[in-house]
Design brief:
By secondary structure, this protein is mainly beta. It contains 3 helices and 12 strands. The chain has a 5-stranded antiparallel sheet with strand order 2-1-7-8-12, with no helix packed on it. The radius of gyration is 17 Å and the shape is globular.
Amino acid sequence: MCGRYTLRTPLNVLAKQFRLDLGEAEAIKPRYNIPPTTEVLAVRHPRELAKLRWGLSPIWAKDTKIAYSTINARVDTVATKPAFRAAYKKRRCLILADGYFEWLKVEKAKQPILYEVDGGKPFAFAGLWEWWGGPEGENKPVESCTIITTDANELAKKVHDRMPVILDADDYDDWLACMDVPLVPFPSDRMTARHVNSYVINVKNQGPQCVEPAPKD
């Protein structure tokens, strides 16, 4: 699964790597501990920068409480599960990140592990987005998203049997155009994993301390 991640990369660097037309986009602050149900940065077709709520709310949902159970979509059911199948066919996105966390159980404690790609460069999760609510009704419109997960690669499986789908840059355009793209584990040799400060476990904590090395015993 993927339940927490980072986006510390400046917006101008993201714009260059993902070929974004920023227009009047506001500067973004580094985020060291991004949790579900908060606003996240994504790219939609063709290369539109968007802010979406993490936790997909399908258009038919009675309310947005479903978002707590739809932060991730399994690759093996994403095309058929009612909550995701419409978005999978028509509304895909790149969810921008530069690291994600998993939690290694050590006796009764949890040790946070930070996974990064290509030495800490930004990358994109395979995401879906959806629109819920409307101006004619009582509900405020919400644009939300989910991150697709797949089997863990050799590096990630040391901690968890699932991992987020990290797209290769060559597949970005096809993914956004809703074409067939291999949703497979990202190559282990392009990733690193390191123990970081337990400060990040508290979802309220932010700042560089979240990604600092874990103190040595």
